[in-house]
């Protein structure tokens, strides 16, 4: 058996088309909407994502600036910049890339992003609102996972969903989105005992870890739907997921890397900007 391939390209293209229409209307009514991406990392996956957002933004008619504070940026420096962008009436969306420099925690600085401009749902207030069912911008990656499952009619109500990874960017907000859809949610992390036993119970398994091919056939039961969020650079300049391709022999469905969650993430980030 080989798993159904849950590609994200078509969904992403549809989202971008809707964004382009709304961005054009907005530009014709005044000025283009503007996103500013703040970065302080030389992480390859982050650099790739930033280039991808900037290029896609240009194509849909959004302005996008990249504000690189360098890997020596401090929490105070980052907070000050995020607060200034939040107060700038010419800026509509503010996004902070992770990872952050050593010693700087996301929660120490993300509070400086105005929740009204918090297009990647980084402010703790945004996560709190998401967790309590109030309107909020969901982190684009977490939203992309649910959008992709919806695209392929994967039922979530009552399903056992297991998320591997508990970051504020992916795992935690995703757990809330899945709960909101009436899944029974388990979140795993680096201290989880007997990971394979937990992941084997999943109807829907999401890997958001950042470890190449961590999820092997031994981690899944036959018929599971697997979403691979991982984007790990390979030595040859390619990209590998968190899920071993051999899982396709056991799973019912699997999202590819590249071409799965990634393109949908970029499209939903831009959608949050026009929203
Ligand atoms: N395709 C896309 O759109 C996106 C892809 N990504 C990619 O997704 C991956 C995860 O990103 P992010 O959440 O930011 O990463 P983080 O490094 O912030 O979080 C990784 C999580 O994985 C857990 N973990 C690490 N090792 C293990 C292990 N051996 N077993 C179980 N859990 C483990 C960590 O646990 P602990 O908390 O205990 O340390 C942590 O919760 C990366 O590859 C990133 O590039 C990210 C965003 C978007
Ligand atoms: N605050 C924050 N939010 C993030 O969402 C975030 C972040 N920080 N830091 C870095 C990671 C990484 N990330 C990716 C998103 C899309 C692709 C993507 O679209 N990749 C393409 C392929 C790229 C290629 O072929 O090289 C794909 O999967 O098809 C990759 C990586 C978001 N991240």
Tell me what the structure shows.
Catalyzes the oxidation of 5,10-methylenetetrahydrofolate to 5,10-methenyltetrahydrofolate and then the hydrolysis of 5,10-methenyltetrahydrofolate to 10-formyltetrahydrofolate. Residues 139-274 form the Tetrahydrofolate dehydrogenase/cyclohydrolase NAD(P)-binding domain. Belongs to the tetrahydrofolate dehydrogenase/cyclohydrolase family. Pathway: One-carbon metabolism; tetrahydrofolate interconversion. NADP(+) binds at residues 165-167, 231. There is one protein chain. The protein is an alpha/beta fold. It folds into 2 domains: 30-114, 3-Layer(aba) Sandwich (Rossmann fold); 139-262, Rossmann fold, CATH 3.40.50. Helices cover 37% and strands 15% of the residues. It has 9 helices and 11 strands. It has helices at residues 9-28, 44-60, 75-87, 106-109, 124-131, 140-151, 171-180, 195-199, 261-274; strands spanning 4-5, 34-39, 63-68, 93-96, 160-164, 184-188, 204-207, 225-228, 232-233, 239-240, 253-254. Strands 1-11-8-7-5-6 form a 6-stranded parallel beta sheet. A hairpin with a 5-residue loop joins β9 and β10 (239-240). α6 packs across α7 (171-180). It is globular, with a radius of gyration of 18 Å. It starts with a strand and ends with a helix. The model has no long low-confidence stretch (mean pLDDT 97). The site of NADPH dihydro-nicotinamide-adenine-dinucleotide phosphate (NDP) has 29 residues, from α6 and α9.
